């Protein structure tokens, strides 16, 4: 399978290139092309994962559909035949990995929902008894489900920089209290809805992050949603609180990178073929399970 790590179309205007997505301008709309680039610790790695962009697009579209009753999203179409004519010219690249979306004003924060204590949250709790400044009961163990879903916003870093956790009060200073409260409520509701859907299929969604924007004064869900790039998925039948879990997401890559003498700054190390293949297989597996 061909690996698409970068797109360039001579008659389409590129307006942004993120860690994974290339974005093209169509006046009041944008074309989001999800490449096979892979980032870890906020660094884009040199080699991509074949077909990853198509899998991410597939699973994001599934969740946009599942959550549209909670909040409107930015999707117009993922069908090349319904996109501007120039897109058809590049069908071989765009098919399955692109979405035409409404252009909106994004909020400058990532909205993180944490249902289980794990990763950096677990390290934080061990040191402080809190996660991102939110005090938790004593005696929780690694990977335990928390008494309630935590909302822990973060700033959106530029490519190559690290996202930084911020308090809810800081977020409210940035965007206003009413909007901050709305984003918190939406984040928790979307996460808990998805968590319950996934649970019935044998998958635990431990945590995830969302992005929102404003379109004509309305808050909408944008970017990606509940993908293996933005979420932590665990196998329910293998779940054992008290230790790290076997992940169905990008964790296989992070775990490998943690074994290296690498300072987590660019340039990142080249991934071995085995790690690339395992990552592709895990992304495919989670999508197939969720979609049934």
Describe what you observe in this structure:
It catalyses: 5-amino-1-(5-phospho-D-ribosyl)imidazole-4-carboxylate + L-aspartate + ATP = (2S)-2-[5-amino-1-(5-phospho-beta-D-ribosyl)imidazole-4-carboxamido]succinate + ADP + phosphate + 2 H(+). It holds the Pfam family SAICAR_synt. GO terms for molecular function: ATP binding; phosphoribosylaminoimidazolesuccinocarboxamide synthase activity. It comes from Denitrovibrio acetiphilus (strain DSM 12809 / NBRC 114555 / N2460). Keywords: ATP-binding, Ligase, Nucleotide-binding, Purine biosynthesis. With 292 residues, the chain is α+β, with helices and mostly antiparallel strands. It folds into 2 domains: 13-104, Phosphorylase Kinase, domain 1, CATH 3.30.200; 106-260, ATP-grasp fold, B domain (D-amino Acid Aminotransferase, Chain A, domain 1, 2-Layer Sandwich). It is built from 8 helices and 17 strands. It has helices at residues 52-67, 85-89, 91-94, 119-128, 168-175, 177-200, 251-258, 273-291; strands spanning 13-17, 21-26, 29-34, 39-40, 43-44, 75-77, 98-102, 105-106, 109-116, 130-131, 134-135, 145-151, 154-155, 164-165, 203-215, 218-222, 231-235. A hairpin with a 2-residue loop joins strand 10 and strand 11 (134-135). The longest helix has 24 residues, at 177-200.
């Amino acid at each position: 399978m061909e690996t698409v790590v970068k797109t360039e179309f001579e008659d389409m205007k590129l307006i942004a290139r993120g860690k994974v997505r290339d974005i093209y301008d169509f006046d009041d709309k944008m074309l989001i092309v999800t490449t096979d680039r892979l980032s870890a610790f906020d660094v884009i790695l040199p080699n991509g994962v074949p077909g990853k962009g198509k899998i991410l697009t597939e699973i994001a579209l599934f969740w946009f559909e599942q959550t549209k009753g909670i909040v409107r999203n930015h999707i117009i179409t993922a069908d090349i035949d319904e996109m501007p004519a120039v897109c058809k010219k590049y069908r071989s690249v765009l098919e399955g990995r692109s979405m035409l979306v409404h252009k909106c004003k994004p909020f400058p924060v990532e909205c993180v929902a944490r249902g289980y204590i794990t990763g950096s949250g677990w390290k934080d709790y061990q040191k402080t008894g809190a996660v991102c400044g939110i005090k938790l009961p004593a005696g929780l163990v690694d990977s335990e489900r928390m008494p309630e879903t935590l909302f822990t916003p973060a700033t959106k870093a530029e490519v190559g920089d690290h996202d930084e956790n911020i308090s809810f009060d800081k977020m409210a200073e940035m965007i206003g209290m009413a909007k901050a409260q709305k984003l918190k409520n939406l984040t928790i509701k979307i996460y808990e809805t998805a968590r319950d859907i996934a649970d019935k299929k044998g998958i635990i969604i431990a945590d995830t992050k969302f992005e929102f924007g404003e379109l004509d004064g309305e808050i909408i869900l944008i970017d990606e949603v509940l993908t293996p790039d933005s979420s932590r998925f665990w196998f329910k039948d293998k779940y054992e609180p008290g230790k790290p879990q076997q992940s169905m997401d990008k964790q296989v890559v992070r775990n490998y990178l943690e074994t290296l003498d690498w300072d987590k700054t660019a340039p990142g190390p080249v991934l071995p073929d085995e790690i690339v293949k395992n990552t592709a297989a895990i992304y495919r597996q989670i999508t197939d399970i969720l979609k049934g």
